[in-house]
Amino acid sequence: MQTTRELAPRKVELTAVTRQARRRGNALGNARLTSVVGVVLLLLLAAEGATIPLLGQLLSVHIFLGMLLLGPVALKLASTGYRFVRYYTHEADYVSHGPPAPLMRLLVAPVLVLSTMVLFGTGVLLLAVPHRGPVLGLHKASFIVWFGATSVHVLAYASRAARHLLSDVAARRPAGLLLRWAAVGIAVAAGVAIAVATYPLAGPWLHHDVFR
Prior knowledge:
With 212 residues, this protein is mostly helical. The chain has one domain (29-211). The protein has helices at residues 4-50, 55-68, 70-88, 92-97, 102-128, 134-170, 177-198, 203-206. α1 packs across α6 (134-170) and α3 packs across α7. The radius of gyration is 22 Å and the shape is globular.
């Protein structure tokens, strides 16, 4: 029969393993959250993009979806920003996962983040202060840059996002599953609330007042 002294080192070892597993779960959970919200964003962005060829007829849908996207976009930026901070503050688990590929980290990611902020920022500004001019031109120009960076981003990470989703579905009790989907649900709900609250501001655009 093992004594208390013999069991103590094993208990400490098991505690260390448990803590390490939790750290792994944190980094993996963050990666899976990023993938889930990324897939949701891709679907919403596809719907938003479908309105562009028929913007004259679907401008109201375009504006509503643009405001709705603010919630999921904010969550995506938060999850990737959190990973960025944890990696560069040398959190062991995030460091063990490694950084993105050099091209993605040094070129695509900065362009994507900046163009996303400009695209949605100008969109909000156009809704708050309806007018044609430099802001509308910047909105259109930022979309072109954003679309190129987003296309590269999707091609680079689509397979990983699919693996994360499949692993969540296949696992019996995936760690943090409910929290991840709750976060996504809250982000979408917040986006819907923003879209509903700001929709009345679209009146000048929908009634063509800004074109007069």
